Amino acid sequence: MNMPEEVCLTDHIRKILRERKPQLIPDDKSKYRHAGVLIPLFNDNGVCRVLFTRRTDTVAHHKGQISFPGGRVDEEDRSVKDTALRETFEEIGVYREQVDILGRIDDTLTMVSNFVVHPFVGLIPYPYDLSLNRAEVDSIIKVPLSRFFPENIKEKMHLVEYDGMTLNTLGFKYREDLIWGATAKIMDNFIKIIIEHL
User: Fold this and answer.
1) Rounded-to-5 percentages of helix, strand, coil across the chain
2) CA nearest 108: which of 16, 168, 23?
3) Are residues 42 and 123 in contact, defined by beta-carbon separation less than 8 angstroms?
4) Superfamily of the domain at 10-24+32-196
5) Measured over all CA atoms, what is the biggest interatomic distance in the chain, rounded to whole angstroms?
6) Strand 108-109 vs strand 177-180: parallel, antiparallel, or unpaired?
7) pLDDT digits (tens, 9 = 90+) for 135-181
8) What ranges in the chain are assigned the alpha helix state H?
């Protein structure tokens, strides 16, 4: 199946996610920490792209890694979706009212920091005057959605040096960047959901 760059499939993705029940990770005993993230899609002159953030080396978790806008659930957050929208504004300056939430996908568990990550897919406006929180976000990366489809991937497993360990992990290479860890797991799950319904 070929995924053209020019197609953002937002109406299709919205329909898929509305009709599909996301797989949630139970936490009856409150043994996990919880985070909400946004998978931001945008239309860049006809090319559907995904926006990622590169974390600074001063954040508490996942230093220097490529991630989605998002973070830990705070007590004042009304829901994990509220967390994702709040963190998106705090990290990159996109107002919650300007995010068109297309739906929610399956939870992901991080292996090192013990977070359950609750991902939401949203369409953000573009062009947009992003305001990066320089304490948390070093830079942004814009990747065509089509680059995550199977026909455009040469290899999915990569060796990563992290925190004194060598990991053989799922990852997506784009130019000089490697998207790995929970972010890669979330993106892989998102693409599988789309493919199942194309």
Assistant:
1) 25, 35, 40
2) 23
3) yes
4) Nucleoside Triphosphate Pyrophosphohydrolase (3.90.79.10)
5) 47
6) unpaired
7) 999 999 999 999 999 999 989 999 998 778 898 999 999 999 999 99
8) 10-19, 80-92, 181-196
